[in-house]
Amino acid sequence: MPTLRNKVALVTGAARGIGAETSRALARKGVKLILIDLDAEPLKALATELGDDVALAVAADVCDLPAMQKAVNSGVAKFGGIDFVLANAGIASFGSVMQVDPATFKRVIDINILGVFHTVRAALPSVIERKGYILVVSSLAAFAPAAGLTAYNASKAGVEHFANALRLEVAHRGVAVGSAHMSWIDTPLVQDAKDDLASFNQFLAALPGPLGKTTSVDACAAAFVDGLTGRKRRVYVPRWVGIFAWLKAVVTSRIGDRTLLPPVPRILPLMDEEVVKLGRSTSARNVALDDVAVDPK
């Protein structure tokens, strides 16, 4: 069984949710951690919790390549190199293509796609040197689209294919690449959507079978640690998500439309109304962090 002890992992989106819990789980296995997030306060608290000899916290925006390079350089200077990358940072926007705030739509694409590129670009030389492993966090959304979540769907499909292409580029250098695909996880992203939007809760309730169920962050973190340990090509959370990887052509066909279309005329207008009332197309937490990114202290 491969051991993770004394390996070094870079984790983006590390301040909360999946990033934070995966970091804790990795630390318990003896991994050293380079923690990156734009939200400096909880990031610093996590690093303090894990210990200075275990974790380095660097507040940085994944959309800023020089900042990411500086963060990577700091981590390599402290721990000697990078064995694993968990490209986890991501946000979502809500509302139809006609209603969603264009700036928020762009911010989702920037964080979820360019942020992955910047993370990988900055860390790749060290990962190649150590013949390491990169896990790009995509989503079930890469296989199954949802009205009102277009930016998120597009970005997660994009990073899945980014991982597929990257795998071809670095395999001969001894580097393995995987993509993670989760259904709804009980993260701040999903919690905020549930709190903000009655339409989002109706959307989940309308989904068939297990598609509307939410999985714990702990279960997701355990699956990610298993994926990192085994350098897996795909990580599915829960495991049934893997079925949709194989059924993608069916889900996006007219057959899939028959399942996904019926609630849209009822739920999408409600979501658009709620977005207008909120005055934002993303969570209040993301709006606050966007202000930090635009005007860094």
Automatic annotation (TrEMBL):
Signal peptide: none annotated. InterPro entries: KR_dom, NAD(P)-bd_dom_sf, Sc_DH/Rdtase_CS, SDR_fam. The keyword Oxidoreductase applies. Keywords: Oxidoreductase. Residues 7-187 form the Ketoreductase domain. It holds the Pfam family adh_short. CDD domains: SDR_c. NCBIfam families: PRK05872.1. PANTHER family: DEHYDROGENASE/REDUCTASE SDR FAMILY MEMBER 7B, DEHYDROGENASE_REDUCTASE SDR FAMILY MEMBER 7B. Belongs to the short-chain dehydrogenases/reductases (SDR) family. This is SDR family oxidoreductase. It comes from Rhodococcus pseudokoreensis.
